[in-house]
Amino acid sequence: MRIAVCDDDEREISRIGKLITEYQISREQAIDCRYFTNSTDFLCELKGGEYDLVLLDVMMPGIGGIQTAQELRRSDRNVRLIFVSASPEFAVDSYRVEAYYYLLKPIDADSFFALLDKIGAELSAQVEQGFILKSRDGVGRIAFARLVYVEVINKTVFFHLADGAVRETTATLADFEGRLLSRPEFLKTHRSYLVNLRYVQAIDANGVTMKSGHSIPVSRQRRSRVWDAYMHFLHQTETEDFASGADKAERPDGPWRILLVDDDPADRTVWADILRSHGCIVQSADNGGDALRLASDCRFDCVLLDVMIPGEDGFSICERFHGSMDIPVIFLSYLTESDKQLEGFAVGGIDYITKDTPAELFWAKVETRIRLTMSERTQLRYGPLLLDLAKRRVLIDEKELPLEPLEFDILCRLSERAGHVFAPEEIYGMIWGGQPWDGGKLVQMHMSRLRRKLEKAWEGHCFIETVWGQGYRFVPAKQ
Fold first, then answer.
1. H or E element: which one contains 111?
2. Among candidate residues 125, 159, 191, the one where a domain is terminated
3. Which residues fall within 8 angstroms of residue 98, CB to CB, at 6 or more apart?
4. Domain boundary among 74, 93, 125
5. Contact 104, 85 (CB under 8 A)
6. 85-140 pLDDT tens trace
7. Of 23, 281, 351, 467, which one is least surrounded by beta carbons within 10 A?
8. Tens of pLDDT along 407-427?
């Protein structure tokens, strides 16, 4: 695990350092930790992707913790942020920059260790998108998110990573560019260079300047194309540059889809307007039965559920949601009593938001809960089909379906973007990485075997459809 600690109080840094040392000894786990006494030094060294976890003091002279987190989010959307403060008053602000947790000083060792355990488990379970590279240093995985740029010199390909490391292998750029250029963040600027647009600082007539300070040439015939591609990329991701919570809420296959269940038309309008203003797609229901039917027809990222609705109350409906599908439920209610809130958590709700909550805080809570749920999700359910990501197994109607490792990987990747048509080249790149394209034989063979197994296990529904002339797409089944 790679950790950065930023706190202007050297005594506090010493205390945190001792806790991290104790944790390493007790868990026999290697941790690479760096310490900063001010935000300026931390941000000046930051490129993005260097750390798994950052602990930030909220109150620091000059650039405070919240502002530091805002700057950090511009270069790294995935790093986990834990704020450390002597006061709880900034907890609301921490939601705005997608904080993982908020700790009060002095840090309790048990709570801190539990957090590190949880983060460590998430990192272990997380399979980072990338490809396997056989280099002069051995065989290892290169993550797309940490690849800054690629260059080739005299039949040697160099991969420059965010932490400053360089991997090299004897090959040609053509051996890798198909895989990389299938992703929107990579761009070829020159016959010898590929860059990750997320790490680009500026583009001008002289070439590309990376955030690391490296200058990348742009060939004359590519200048117009490179400029257009960069402007399009900025347009697509410009909302991510806002460290406030006003960015458009999106998952890999589009805007977040939220099911709002409330029998009061006025309340539905208020909350739906807030969600839509942040880019969400909202569908509404005024009772639990309709909500369950809608959820069986469409995949939602979250359900906002009123407690007092006609028929079965929200608590009962929440239990039914968890009994048939994997959708996070947030309660939204005028009932403020602590026993009601506790009941909401007891039946499986991930949060309980009272209706007197200001719009800004309401959105911050919803956004943070959805993002955290996505990062922690270990199971995906589509009607009778359950994908257990932690144990790498598939069940259909509670019966295990034996799949080969590559078949499991293919099914997971396709199911995460249900309805999206994957070209054979795209599937090949996701599964077989930088290996030379074989014309589609491997993809066709594995897709054929996977489809036969799925169709045999659940007759009457084809989970994976062939879109002639285009590729394949995953189609969820209704329970």
1. helix 109-125
2. 125
3. 73, 81, 367, 368, 371
4. 125
5. yes
6. 888 777 777 777 788 888 888 888 888 898 888 888 777 655 456 788 887 777 77
7. 467
8. 888 998 888 777 778 888 888
Whether 332 is in a domain gets the answer yes
H or E segment and range at residue 22? helix 10-27
Kindly report the CATH number assigned to the domain that includes residue 445: 1.10.10.10
| Total domains present in the chain | 4
Structural domain containing residue 16: 2-125
Whether the model clears a pTM of 0.85, i.e. scores above it, the answer is no
147 and 120 share one domain: no
Are 258 and 345 members of one domain?
A: yes
Which is nearest to 354 in space by CA: 331, 375, 371, 370?
331
CATH code where residue 90 lies? 3.40.50.2300
As a whole number of angstroms, the distance between CA 177 and CA 235 comes to 24
Helical H segments across 28-100, by residue range: 39-45, 65-75, 91-96
pLDDT (tens digit per residue) in 247-292: 445 454 457 889 999 998 888 888 988 888 888 888 888 898 888 8
Contacts of 114 (CB under 8 A, 6+ apart): none
Kindly state whether residues 158 and 201 are assigned to the same domain. Answer: yes
Q: DSSP states of 408-431 as a string?
A: HHHHHHHHTTTTPPBPHHHHHHHH
CA pair distance 327, 89, nearest whole angstrom: 31
Beta bridge partners of 282: 258
Q: Is 164 exposed, middle or buried (0-12, 13-18, 19+ CB in 10 A)?
A: exposed
Do 59 and 77 form a contact (C-beta atoms < 8 A)? Answer: no
